[in-house]
Amino acid sequence: MVHSAVIIGSGFGGIGMAIRFRQAGIRDVVILEKADGLGGTWRDNTYPGAACDVPSHLYSFSFERKTDWSRRFPPQREILDYLWHCARKYGVLGQIRFGTEVTEARFDEDRAVWRISTTGGELESHVLVSACGQLNRPVLPEIEGRETFTGPSFHSARWDHGVDLRGRRVAVIGTGASAVQIVPEIAKETAELRLFQRSAPYVIDKPDRPYRAWEKAVLAKVPGLYELNRARIYAMFESRAIGFFKYPKLMSLVEKRFWDTLTEAVDDPELRRALVPDYPMGCKRILISNDYYPALTKPHVDLITDPIRSITPGGVRTARREYEVDVIVYATGFRTSDFLSPMKIVGRDGLELNEAWRDGAEAHLGITVSGFPNLFLLYGPYTNLGHNSIIYMLESQFRYVLGCVEAMRRHGLDWIDVRPDVQDAFTREMRERMRSTVWETGCQSWYMTEDGKVVNNWPGFTFAYRRATRRPDPRHFRARRRASR
Fold first, then answer.
1. Could you name the domain of life of the organism this protein comes from (predicted)?
2. Domains of the chain
3. Could you give the CA distance from residue 294 to residue 382 in angstroms, rounded to a whole number?
């Protein structure tokens, strides 16, 4: 049996794409999920304090409104529950094959199908959609002696809830988005907390609070108010974009919020100096928190800026001394530029995706890759954001993918393949536009490849991306018409 479409991953991208397929009457769709539950990053990241840094009314599907969010910025459990709700309500839960990891996908050009090998067997599909996301493969740092540590140690995205941190000495390595949420929570119960910082982040205040009962009731009952509120939040966040990709000097307005947040929370001048980043505002991800800086002022919490030399059986050694700890938490991020790894993807003429991307990931509009017919990426290269909700970008991609699939059906096509010159032109445009962005002002971030190319972010307004993906342009593709049978 050849399926109409196979989707890899069951986070926001996979669930949303399956729903849109189903609404379009394309029901023979299979979702392959390597874990035992859906949710993607919101399933994996269960660490203390895990929450979203985009407001709840914007971090949700436009077609499935939720008026009873508990807070302005939703916690992890509530987001995961929302995804389960969507999967059940729209009838796609039964389409998910849990515990099924894709190892290889190979395009059979003669039959115009993708042959997909998984840990649960093989299947075939006319269309293959990758909804793996950019933040799904944790990175453990290559520190000498890491394997010798005798106590519990784990990555923040694989939190070991069986480890009791109460009264223990804990090391947190890394100061990114996860650490900023973790540190204030575990500082409430640890005896000692050592935070090892390689690079200070910019942290600004988080305008978060619980929603009042009357607010939820009004949003649910007053016609059009929910949509108006969502549009207001969208416009507010979208207005920040110009500082990221056009006029980086405007980031000084946001930098004032950073200084206000820091100076209000930290009196110690030495600690304050250690928390000031050495790169331009916005070059790396801007973080939001009301309790991170206050947590660092607690007497049992130490910020350590000396470079780590090694991990020992009993702790963490820097150039100056060894810190004895009982538990190590690695808040060290993800492999973000290897979009489909470790899967092996083989397209036309035996072309492997890893080979095609040896100089950095490329995909027209972040969705289609030349040489790989009927393969569509969600949240692919050049589609991440620094200023707004990724759900908005995903919904733009849903419409584009659906437009491609419906065009193939309407015109009787076996496959479509984006032309290499179209993909090259898009990549050149992205790299040219990237030069004026804040992301290329001299820092090393997860937005980049190892050789310094920013391949993750969209250098423009999200509404411009939606316009660009409104409908597929047939001139952009090579195609093969289905032979009459």
1. Bacteria
2. 2-137+335-481 (3.50.50.60), 146-209+216-330 (3.50.50.60)
3. 35
